[in-house]
Amino acid sequence: MKFSVFTASTPDWTPPEAAAQLAAQGWDGVEWRITDQDAADAPGFWAGNRATWPLTGLEERLTEIDAVTRGAGLAYSGIGGYARSFERTDVARLLTATAALGAGRVRVTMPLVKTGDYRDLFAGARKDLEWATAEAARLGVTVLVELHHETITASASAALRLIDGLDPAAVGVIHDLGNLIYEGYEDHRAAFQLLGPYLQHVHVKNVAWHPVATAADGSVAWKADWATLREGQADVGAYLRALREHGYDGWITLEDFSTAVPLPERTRDNLAYLRSLL
């Protein structure tokens, strides 16, 4: 297995700083966050993230992106795109950029369930993916659909239903350990077997649920929050062993959104921990 970091989780670093730090720590690759984001007074995961390349003007930055990445000796585990499946112009731009960079694969986000009737959202996303996978096949790259809470593909079963019958050379699934603690958990081995050739990428982070309030009748309200790899509810070691036993030998991409430990120490320790588990 190869290890990379998704730069949504490294907001304090500029791209050159992220590449230099990750390469020095021994990571194999990087998954760049590409999106037009809101500004922020202080860098954050979702706004003001310094390790993000903007979608606007992306085509003019490709040479710079490649120089930063390969100049540090890093490979691309993929591109962390935020274009929604129905935003075909932006999806096409990301597919073309992924091909130009030789990055192999790019995430396309699925509709949120709160934005409409699930059946309509699902049918629309299927049509969008049929178009996107045809474009991806033409360019020699792969569209990735992430298992993500609050979307139409929270589980492996839902993702398979969405992409079943499409060419697995042009579309695959990101199996995300942490997101499944929020929603969509299925036995990992069963999920890997179910996805078959569509299991093409893995994200690792961890999450824990905490009680936040107790009602007068004694009912407890719970809230999920990001946790370190060791302290969350997901058993990261068992997960990696299950992947290995299944025969998965691709990228493991870290996206640790916990903040108890400073970023350089956090990424360094996470790599050591992941390697120790294997």
TrEMBL record:
InterPro entries assigned: IolE/XylAMocC-like, Xyl_isomerase-like_sf, Xyl_isomerase-like_TIM-brl
Positions of the Xylose isomerase-like TIM barrel domain: 21-276
Entry's Gene Ontology molecular function annotations: isomerase activity
Gene3D superfamilies to which the protein is assigned, alphabetical: Divalent-metal-dependent TIM barrel enzymes
Cross-referenced Pfam families: AP_endonuc_2
Keyword terms, alphabetized: Isomerase
Protein name from the UniProt record: Sugar phosphate isomerase/epimerase family protein
